[in-house]
Design a protein that fits this description.
Elements: H1 8-19, E1 35-47, E2 53-63, E3 71-77, H2 90-101, E4 105-109, H3 120-146, E5 154-164, H4 166-176, H5 189-195, E6 213-217, E7 220-221, E8 234-239, E9 249-252, E10 259-263, H6 264-273, E11 278-283, H7 296-316, E12 365-367, E13 374-378, E14 384-391, E15 396-400, E16 406-410, E17 417-425, E18 430-437
Length: about 450
């Protein structure tokens, strides 16, 4: 680690600048009561899988009346198994609106979908096309700033990419598929070249595709080894009952089994092993993209999803807002498998620091369990900074900030059933305990 010295004046300036973006609740709460959207902005073009020229468009969201000229940008990518979906899908619309009202600039993009025959080789080509288009969209905003127009008032030092399902898969591959040799086991170099390479030709050539973080919602990476030390941070949300894109390692199946992908559970382990920041939230038993829709359950899942993304981002932005939606411990053992880097060297599959939060529990006790409604959470090593009780839909039903080594939780008002007690210790560690209310 490099060491350096700062004058007191520079330190003061650092904290002023670091805190400034979050003043007035910006980026942490919906400070704008409404939003505006500019639809069908053309950001590029490219050939579809049938060879037809395709115009690539995005919808741009911002808080109504927002005058900030250096806003962080989130580029949202819709799902649809690379066969369909649009930039106006309900989940990406909801997230774009919510984060625009928090003060972000948001772009929801269309990208080239469709492939035939529906098999593994053509599915990989579809992923490459989506990666190329997302990179074209990133370059579009860099170009807007670099050419001096800055129509969209973007800070290119704070660009984040993410989405649901196929959208998350696309964002993860933009971030972590950075060497053609990594994909050589799926497509040979001739085919990659025919597609236009990993950068592609979807528009705005010559500009950067650098981003600062990934929002992975029910997504996966072809191989966890593509995530390497020094890569950008990411956050993940995934349900253990996901039958389409598996929580762990499994065959992605949008109706037709296609190929093995490494889900969020493996990416969490891998990130820990190579020291890449990864905030992970598990929805126990939840299906694929459980927050999409208008049902009460979907709305509850979306509330947790929105809050978890928000807290990941405000941390990345250097805001001092207290975390409101804690990560929880991953479920299931990660299904690791032998793999090598492009140069043939073996991948370190083990997180030396330990990836099972129960092993980091620092003698945390929760009793009685099962309980009639009053339980004691206790530890001997550090104080609890925050304790929350979450139901299996991801809804926070109780939150407290005890700042001591014991926390008494009055839960007799809760419906009998299974809950998760999440806690944050003042040494920065967190963990989860399962609780049964009778």
């Amino acid at each position: 680690m490099k060491k350096f010295t700062l004058t007191s004046a520079f330190i003061a300036l650092f904290f002023i600048v670091g805190a400034q973006p979050c003043t007035g609740g910006r980026y942490a709460s919906e400070i704008f009561p409404t939003f505006s959207v500019t639809s069908n902005i053309v950001y590029g073009q490219n050939a579809s899988f049938t060879g037809a020229n395709t115009s690539l468009k995005l919808d741009f969201y911002e808080g109504t009346g927002d005058t900030e000229v250096n806003r962080p940008l989130i580029i949202w990518v819709h799902g649809g198994s690379f066969l369909g979906g649009t930039k106006t899908d309900m989940d990406v619309q909801a997230l774009s609106r919510s984060f625009a009202q928090k003060g972000y600039a948001c772009a929801s993009i269309d990208y080239r979908t469709g492939f035939f025959p529906i098999d593994s080789a053509n599915a990989v080509k579809a992923v490459v096309r989506a990666v190329q288009d997302l990179k074209g969209a990133i370059r579009f905003f860099y170009k807007d700033v670099a050419t001096g127009t800055n129509v969209y008032n973007i800070d290119t030092n704070r660009i984040y990419i993410g989405g649901s399902s196929a959208g998350a898969i696309t964002a993860l591959h933009v971030a972590y598929l950075d060497d053609p040799c990594e994909i050589s086991g799926y497509l040979n170099q001739t085919v990659i070249n025919q597609l236009g390479g990993l950068e592609g030709a979807s528009g705005n050539p010559g500009y950067s595709t650098k981003t600062q973080g990934v929002i992975n919602l029910c997504g996966a990476l072809a191989q966890y080894s593509w995530l390497e030390s020094g890569d950008i941070p990411f956050c993940s949300i995934h349900g253990t009952g996901d039958g389409t894109v598996k929580y762990n390692r499994g065959i992605v199946n949008p109706g037709t089994p296609l190929m093995y992908l490494d889900g969020s559970r493996l990416l969490f382990d891998r990130a820990c092993a190579v020291n890449v920041q990864n905030n992970f939230y598990t929805f126990p038993g939840a299906p694929h993209v459980p927050y999409a829709g208008a049902s009460a359950n979907a709305i509850a899942y979306m509330d947790t999803t929105d809050n978890f993304i928000r807290d990941f981002l405000i941390d990345q932005l250097g805001c001092t807002n207290s975390p409101l939606q804690l990560a929880n411990a991953p479920l299931q053992a990660a299904i690791l498998y032998p793999t090598n880097y492009c140069d043939g060297s073996p991948v370190n599959e083990t997180c030396i620091a330990g990836i099972n939060e129960e092993s980091l529990s620092y003698n945390v006790e929760l009793f009685p369990n099962p309980s009639e409604g009053v339980v004691l959470l206790r530890t001997q090593d550090f104080n609890f900074s925050q304790v929350a009780v979450v139901d299996l839909l991801g809804r926070t039903v109780l939150k407290t900030y005890p700042n001591n080594q014991e926390s008494i939780l009055e839960l007799s008002h809760l419906t009998p059933g299974n809950y998760l007690v999440t806690y944050l210790l003042n040494n920065g560690s967190y963990g989860t305990k399962q609780l049964v209310i009778r």
